[in-house]
TrEMBL record:
Lineage: Eukaryota, Metazoa, Ecdysozoa, Arthropoda, Crustacea
InterPro entries found in the cross-reference section: Arrestin-like_C, Arrestin-like_N, Arrestin_C-like, Arrestin_domain-protein, Ig_E-set
GO biological process terms, semicolon-separated: protein transport
Protein name: Arrestin domain-containing protein
Protein source organism: Daphnia magna
Domain Arrestin C-terminal-like span(s) in chain numbering: 182-310
Length: 391
């Protein structure tokens, strides 16, 4: 006989935590008739995983009709690695074969996250993921299981990174044509007042394009690109994805971008600190499209994304919290910061603007290969981390 309901609830309904924070909640058991129970426990796990495949060629020597031949064989090679941060098992009820009476039961639990753990992250070839799994053990029958993800935000304080407050500028040029038949150049440059920003913050992007050719340009474009390296035991796989894009159309001689606003989306901080098998970087790319068969002129510079803003920018943020889970500016759900726990390491900033949490545009699936068919996933097996967001 299955249970009517078996689920996990957390006292922090935002389900976002910091390293070193205590997680408290309940395992709920609803049954319409008395049942035997062997025991109830939870497993709390923090794990980084990387997995990808490549098609590689292998040279093999074979013998045919008494002669050796070298064949080229294509084979699929799988690469993977793991980094375990914690794996705690907490027994919350030792049934010892006793009967659990019908009705609604709740069993409290708590555990403390380690201090030195990275932020949650979902990528194309790997993840940093934190989950809580509850198990209702039964004798001689399959167990009831439920599993939920939580988000961890490890702190990256831009005030502790000198390069974050330094203005940035990048420039480049290109000509059209080949050899002696080249055109006058196309030049492009852009600049920002600094390199470091936090999710929700508004960049003021400035750029200038000078077209000295006789040809009309097809357009120009700004992109913020997230570049991730996934490190397996014997190989590294890189992946890029665009987290912001602004596009403008055709122009003839000069194109100006003046204080163009770019809102930094909710993403993990640069570096993905404390994770040794995944690293994340951000780059701002400004490109000019000459059209026809010519390659784009591209100018780029690294950005620093943190989750504690520069103190000099505090006044730029609205000093209020969202009061409930709402639809965020990126079309994703957002929620106020958890009131029961302050942001670690920010006692020196009493005027720090209160953040909210917003879902990342990228997510994953928390269903693992070792999960049994009897695992339920609360709100579903799809998951997007929530990151500290300001403004």
């Amino acid at each position: 006989m299955v249970l009517d309901k078996f689920f996990i609830s957390l006292d922090n309904d935002v389900i976002v935590y910091f390293p070193g924070q205590e997680i408290t909640g309940y395992v709920h058991v609803w049954n319409s008739e008395s049942k035997n129970v062997k025991g109830i426990y939870i497993e709390c796990r923090g794990l980084a995983q990387v997995s990808f495949s490549r098609t590689e060629q292998e040279m093999r020597t074979v013998y045919r009709n008494g002669r050796s031949h070298t064949d080229v064989i294509n084979k699929t090679v799988h690469y993977s690695s793991k980094e375990n941060y914690f794996h705690h098992r907490v027994t919350i009820s030792t049934g010892n074969g006793q009967v659990l009476n019908k009705g609604k039961h709740q069993f409290p639990f708590s555990f403390v996250l380690p201090q030195q753990i990275p932020s949650s992250f979902e990528g194309a070839h790997g993840s940093v993921r934190y989950t809580i799994r509850a198990v209702y053990e039964r004798r001689l029958k399959w167990n009831h299981e439920c599993k939920i993800p939580i988000t961890v935000n490890s702190i990256t304080d831009l005030n502790a990174i000198p390069e974050a407050s330094v203005p940035i500028q990048a420039s480049g040029f290109k000509t059209l044509g080949i050899l002696c038949c080249t055109s006058n150049p196309i030049t492009a440059k852009f600049w920002l007042d600094r390199a470091g920003y936090v999710p929700g913050e508004k960049m003021k992007f400035n750029a200038e394009v000078e077209n000295l050719t006789r040809k009309r340009m097809r357009g120009s474009k700004i992109q913020i690109i997230e570049r991730t390296n996934f490190h397996a035991t014997r190989a590294t796989e890189s992946h890029e994805r665009v987290i912001h894009e602004s596009v403008r159309g055709k122009f003839k001689s000069v194109e100006l971008w003046e204080n163009h606003p770019i809102i930094v989306p909710p993403v993990v901080s640069s570096g993905l600190n404390l994770c040794r098998i995944i690293d994340v970087a951000y780059v701002l790319v400004f490109s000019v499209d000459p059209g026809s068969l010519s390659f784009n002129l591209k100018v780029s510079h690294d950005l620093l994304i943190g989750n504690v803003p520069l103190r000099s920018s505090f006044a730029n943020f609205q000093h209020h919290n969202r009061i409930s889970v709402t639809q965020g500016r990126y079309g994703n759900p957002s929620a106020p910061a958890y009131p029961g726990h302050s942001i670690p390491g920010t006692d020196a900033y009493p005027d720090l603007p209160p953040p909210s949490y917003e879902e990342c545009m990228f997510g994953g699936n928390i269903r693992d290969a070792e999960d049994s068919e009897h695992v339920s996933y609360g709100a579903g097996d799809s998951y997007k981390p929530r990151y500290l967001t300001y403004g």
